[in-house]
Amino acid sequence: PLITECASIESTIKMLQGEGFDDITVTELGADPAKKCPVFNFLKLPEKAAAGGYKIKDLLGDKFVPVRDDSWKMMRFVNVSESIYKAPFIINMPTVKNHSTVDLTCSLKNNMGPIDFASRMEMHRQHKQPIEKEAREEEEKVCVPEIAHAINPDLTIIDARQVMGGHHNNWRAG
Predict the structure, then answer these.
(1) According to the model, what pLDDT value does residue 172 have?
(2) Quick check: 62 and 82 in contact, CB under 8 A?
(3) Helix (H, G, I), strand (E, B), or coil: what is residue 142?
(4) pLDDT band at residue 52, thresholds of 50, 70 and 90?
(5) In degrees, to the nearest 5, what angle opens at C-alpha 114 toward C-alphas 30 and 126?
């Protein structure tokens, strides 16, 4: 799978609701401001959320909060979605992912959605001078965990039903 199975999301929500949690929001970063979040529509989450007593939120257009940490070696800042930054508890539910330079990112790549474009570009432009490909790849291997640290989920549940190959794993609806 290229996206987390809806049944996994829904069973986690039902478990949380059974434990008394009643303010649950599922977030995703939509790709096109003119459309409603395509992932939500693909999973039919608007209808399921209404019936299941939870909310959905497209992070596209959300405000961002700058996060900095003196222990980071590469990232000067990471701008995190305000909705994610202010969330009292974050559950990250990614599928297993890989990346052309960082290799297996597992749950870390899923943290790219709640950051802004400037932070993504900061990750790719760490060096002011052109450097060799291997050195750039090593720098990116440090940046991805630093971005994940800025979001810092409380719990990560990995959908590892299928390990995928290829350069980038993008879902396709239809």
Answers:
(1) 42
(2) yes
(3) helix
(4) very high
(5) 115
- Partners of 56 in the β-ladder: 26
Q: With CA atoms as reference, report the closest residue to 3 among 29, 32, 21, 24.
A: 29
With vertex at residue 142, the alpha carbon angle to CA 137 and CA 147, rounded to the nearest 5 degrees, is 120
Residues ≥6 apart with Cβ < 8 Å to 91:
12, 153, 154, 155, 156, 157
Cα separation of the two ends of the chain? 14
pLDDT at position 136 is 62
Distance CA 73, CA 84 (A): 23
pTM: 0.75
Q: What's the pLDDT tens digit per position in 86-128?
A: 999 999 888 776 666 556 667 776 777 788 888 887 776 655 5
Closest by CA position to 147, among listed 97, 108, 93, 103: 108
